[in-house]
UniProtKB/TrEMBL annotation:
Name of this chain's protein: alpha-1,2-Mannosidase
Required cofactor names: Ca(2+)
Top-level taxonomic group: Eukaryota
EC number(s) given by UniProt: 3.2.1.-
Pathway info: Protein modification; protein glycosylation
One family name in Pfam for this protein: Glyco_hydro_47
UniProt keywords, alphabetically: Disulfide bond, Glycosidase, Hydrolase
Enzyme class, broadest EC rank: hydrolase
Length: 645
């Protein structure tokens, strides 16, 4: 047995060890206390809330900055929050043509399925290239086969393509894309700022649409995160949105609206914010965009072209009742203005017809556009039978006094107007507008076929027919509102600085490129779904094959620099020298898969796939579910029907 001295030695060692352990425990406790205190302090700092990345449900990963906890510098008065309209969604007029009354032949059905499959393969090729060379980046550079970040680096093509993948039945690709989307960290960016407008229509719209189609909760979770970030764009002295969204300034509450903001950027947030409010039940999103709507309503009749707003407006006025000034002189349905007008009728639909404000905004603006911006081109004597019945949309300079000058500049971006007129015409019982919509849609399709590549340019000028002395009543369908005119070679030569350089009646091409844009096929798709005219299917197919031939690369598709050059032909440089300038622009923006290929796919699909009576498209072609009689805002059963008043 051990001796007494050994026992004392063992006891001393034991007590010494216990003292060390106690000291270590105290140190650990103190360290944990300090960590907890620091974490508490961080949580108490509303502008900078650090949140650990911990999976919440499934693959969902929460962003490291929680914008919902950020304290607003200019908080909204909660007593004045504008809530979603209450009541039962109205039974709106039928939008789509009743295709059940037509019996399609087997050959017709077979042809459309083959066309649809060709579009699907183009989308799959584009997606595979993005997946292989630019996964998680904003877009693919289709010739260099690498990625590029143009929209903060969150993966614009990834999120923008979600609903397209689902609609086309590319299920494996969709599932993988959702898993990647679930890990997006909105606080990790490749730039110091983003566009509030572009982020809303591409990212937020993409997330909400995919959720409406599939119901993946992770997509709504990510949409709420993003929506809370974008909501900070309204944390300004007058609560007008700051489109230039600097992340650091947004966290500090120092964003400011612009004195020269595009009307599209200010007016194209409503659909996405409204749908987010409907799905979450949080009125703050709808209230924010409603402030913009009310400001537009107040200024609609007080511009140089009453009924429309200038392309650029001042949204910086620090006057709560009049935060917008709209005194510019340039008016258009094209770049920087387009989707502000597009969203009026669509908001009326998304709100179930419960807010008449949007009907008024739409009808007034379309009446002005119809009277001053639309024109019939002077067509050459190239047609064996009756020339095509087409219209185009130009720009207007108005000084608010005695000058309203039509500038017959045609923009590819403005080709959406055909769908807008047709949709509003069906919705608000204006058959003349449906006709105008079809004429505008066919006008852009005609412009496609006029050029050697089979594609219309980004920006061009056309010789118009003389304007009619007055516009007929909207109810008068017999009188030709835009009279046709005969070709006048003298007028053509006088107006054209280089006769023969461009197809007649084009007198100039300011931008000959094609950027893989969707607007022309968008309007052809809507015109077909509304009128049921089968020749529009053939027009769409000619457009698709022309685009495919001119833009396809070995592994993807690319924008091209000059539509006035047929594929395979040598392209001259700016000085007329041949073969020294590339036809391609090494660009495949996210809207190629999100919009262009989606519309081509849908026009050749069964008409009940994403019916216009069930979904409303945002300006990035993301279908959002329409509340219906008998259903709530989320599309759930439980409400009674009510006819539209």
């Amino acid at each position: 047995m051990p001796g007494i001295s050994d026992s004392f030695t063992t006891a001393a060692a034991f007590h010494s060890a216990m003292a060390i352990l106690t000291a270590r425990r105290f140190q650990r406790l103190a360290l944990l206390t300090v960590v907890a205190l620091v974490f508490y302090i961080l949580l108490d700092q509303a502008d900078y809330v650090a949140i650990p990345i911990v999976p919440k449900t499934g693959q969902y990963v929460q962003s490291t900055y929680d914008w919902a906890r950020r304290r607003m510098k200019y908080p909204f008065d909660e007593s004045k929050l504008i809530k979603l309209p209450e009541g039962i969604p109205r039974e709106l007029p039928r939008i789509q043509y009743d295709f059940s009354q037509d019996e399609a032949s087997e050959s017709h059905i077979k042809t459309q399925k083959e066309r649809q499959e060709a579009v699907k393969q183009a989308a799959k090729k584009s997606w595979n290239a993005y997946r292989k060379y630019a996964w998680g980046r904003d877009e693919l550079l289709p010739e260099k086969l690498t990625g590029k970040d143009t929209f903060a680096g969150w993966g614009a093509t990834l999120v923008d393509s979600l609903d397209t993948l689902w609609i086309m039945g590319l299920n494996d690709e969709y599932k993988e894309a959702v898993q990647k989307t679930a890990t997006i960290n909105w606080d990790k960016t490749t730039s110091s700022h983003c566009s509030l407008f572009e982020t809303t229509i591409r990212y937020l719209g993409g997330l909400l649409s995919a959720y409406d189609l599939n119901g993946d909760q992770v997509l709504l979770d990510k949409a709420v995160e993003l929506g809370d970030m974008l909501y900070a764009g309204f944390d300004t002295p007058n609560h007008m949105p700051a489109n230039s969204f600097n992340f650091r300034e947004a966290k500090a509450g120092s964003l400011r609206p612009s004195m020269g903001e595009s009307s599209a950027a200010a007016g194209t947030l409503s659909l996405e914010f409204t749908r987010l409010a409907q799905l979450t039940g949080d009125p703050k999103y709808f209230s924010a965009i409603s402030g913009v709507t009310r400001a537009l309503e107040k200024t609609q009749d007080d511009t140089n072209l009453p009924g429309m707003w200038p392309v650029f407006i001042d949204v910086s006025r620090n006057e709560p009742e009049n935060p917008i000034s709209a005194k510019g002189s340039s008016f258009s349905l094209g770049a920087s203005a387009d989707s502000a007008y597009e969203y009026f009728s669509k908001m009326y639909v998304l709100l179930g017809g419960l807010d008449p404000t949007y009907k008024k905004l739409h009808m007034k603006s379309m009446a002005t556009a119809r009277n001053h911006l639309l024109f019939r081109p002077m067509l050459p004597d190239l047609y064996p039978a009756t020339p095509p019945d087409v219209l185009l949309s130009g720009n207007v300079y108005a000084n608010g006094q005695d000058i309203i000058d039509l500038q017959p500049q045609v923009q590819h971006l403005g080709c959406f107007a055909g769908g807008m007129f047709a949709l509003g015409g069906k919705l608000f019982h204006e058959p003349a507008h449906v006709k105008i919509g079809e004429q505008l849609a066919r006008g852009c399709a005609w412009a496609y076929e006029a050029f050697p590549s089979g594609i219309m340019p980004e920006v061009s000028e056309i010789i118009p027919c003389p304007a009619p002395s007055s516009a007929p009543s909207s109810k008068d369908e017999e009188q030709e509102e835009f009279p046709r005119c005969k070709w006048d070679d003298a007028t053509y030569k006088e107006a054209n600085t280089a006769p023969g350089r461009y197809p007649k009646p084009f007198r100039a091409v300011q931008d000959p490129s094609y950027l893989l844009r969707p607007e022309a096929i968008e309007s052809i798709f809507i015109a077909y779904r509304i009128t049921g005219k089968k020749d529009l299917l053939d027009i769409a197919w000619r457009m698709f094959t022309a685009v495919q031939k001119a833009t396809e690369t070995n592994e993807a598709y690319t924008a091209i620099s000059d539509v006035n050059v047929a594929p395979g032909e040598e392209q001259a440089d700016a000085h007329g020298r041949g073969g020294t300038r590339s036809r391609t622009k090494n660009s495949m923006e996210s809207f190629w898969i999100a919009e262009t290929l989606k519309y081509y796919y849908l026009i050749f699909s069964e008409p009940d796939l994403i019916s216009l009576d069930d979904y409303v498209f945002n300006t990035e072609a993301h279908p959002l579910k329409i509340p219906k009689p008998g259903k709530g805002a989320e599309g759930k059963e439980g409400l009674d029907t009510e006819k539209e008043a």
